[in-house]
């Protein structure tokens, strides 16, 4: 990850922005702005984690890898949260791979400095634990959704999650990528995308996806998307729901 100039810009990460000014001021010198290039693996399964990333833009997928090498997305982190959650609980190993799915930037802090800040700041520690609960709600609902809901509902939900995080109506997307994210075969993705496109909710062509009817896409999604948004808002404040699962 390449360091880039911060230009003394205000933080855009939701967790950092929610900190009291004094806590953020103490933390800020330890944060370094880095690029998150598309498809970069930030850490692999069973890697030792030595940094925490607070995304400022873009989106990171957390992927479980099965014995046959197949991968499926089990969680998503954007500027509402962080990457490196095991370190919040004092562990330095991850069961999943973290891979950049939408390029962006993040504020990086080393593991030792992160632990020190958690010990010094009650506000930071409380905020991170509440985020962990919200993230747990995200993956719990994802598991239920993937088991019970129709593919087009799941696709609508995933596209809303991506739309929340990248703050753009148009973004790169392939059927192969969606197939891995949803854990379904590519023909199923093609049918589901066709249903949403025929309804005028999205436009898909040449590896790019555009959300053309956000309210309609929300109506087409299952309740899991809305339930998770409410849980993020309950635990982290109303602002977190604007760019959370």
Automatic annotation (TrEMBL):
InterPro entries: cNMP-bd_dom, cNMP-bd_dom_sf, Env_Response_Regulators, HTH_CRP, RmlC-like_jellyroll, WH-like_DNA-bd_sf, WH_DNA-bd_sf. Keywords: DNA-binding, Transcription, Transcription regulation. Pfam families: cNMP_binding, HTH_Crp_2. Residues 15-133 form the Cyclic nucleotide-binding domain. GO terms for cellular component: cytosol. The keyword 4Fe-4S does not apply. The keyword Methyltransferase does not apply. One of its GO terms (molecular function) is DNA-binding transcription factor activity. This is cAMP-binding proteins - catabolite gene activator and regulatory subunit of cAMP-dependent protein kinases.
């Amino acid at each position: 990850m390449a360091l880039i100039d911060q230009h003394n810009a205000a933080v855009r990460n939701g967790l950092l922005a929610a900190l009291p000014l004094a806590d953020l001021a103490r933390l800020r010198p330890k944060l370094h702005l880095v690029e998150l290039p598309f498809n970069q693996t930030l850490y692999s399964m069973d890697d030792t984690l030595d940094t925490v990333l607070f995304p400022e833009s873009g989106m990171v997928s957390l992927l479980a890898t099965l014995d046959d090498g197949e991968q499926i997305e089990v969680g998503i982190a954007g500027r509402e949260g962080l990457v490196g959650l095991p370190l919040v609980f004092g562990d330095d190993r991850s069961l999943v791979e973290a891979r950049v799915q939408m390029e962006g930037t993040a504020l990086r802090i080393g593991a030792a400095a992160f632990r020190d800040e958690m010990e010094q700041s009650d506000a930071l520690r409380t905020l991170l634990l509440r985020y962990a609960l919200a993230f747990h709600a995200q993956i719990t609902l994802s598991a239920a959704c993937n088991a019970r809901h129709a593919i087009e509902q799941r696709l609508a939900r995933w596209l809303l999650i991506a739309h929340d995080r990248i703050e753009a109506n148009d973004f790169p997307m392939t059927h192969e990528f969606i197939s891995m994210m949803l854990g379904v075969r590519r023909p199923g993705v093609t049918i589901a995308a066709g249903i949403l496109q025929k309804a005028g909710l999205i436009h898909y062509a040449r590896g790019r996806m555009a959300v053309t009817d956000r309210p309609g896409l929300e109506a087409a999604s299952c309740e899991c998307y809305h339930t998770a948004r409410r849980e993020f808002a309950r635990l982290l404040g109303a602002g977190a729901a604007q760019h959370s699962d």
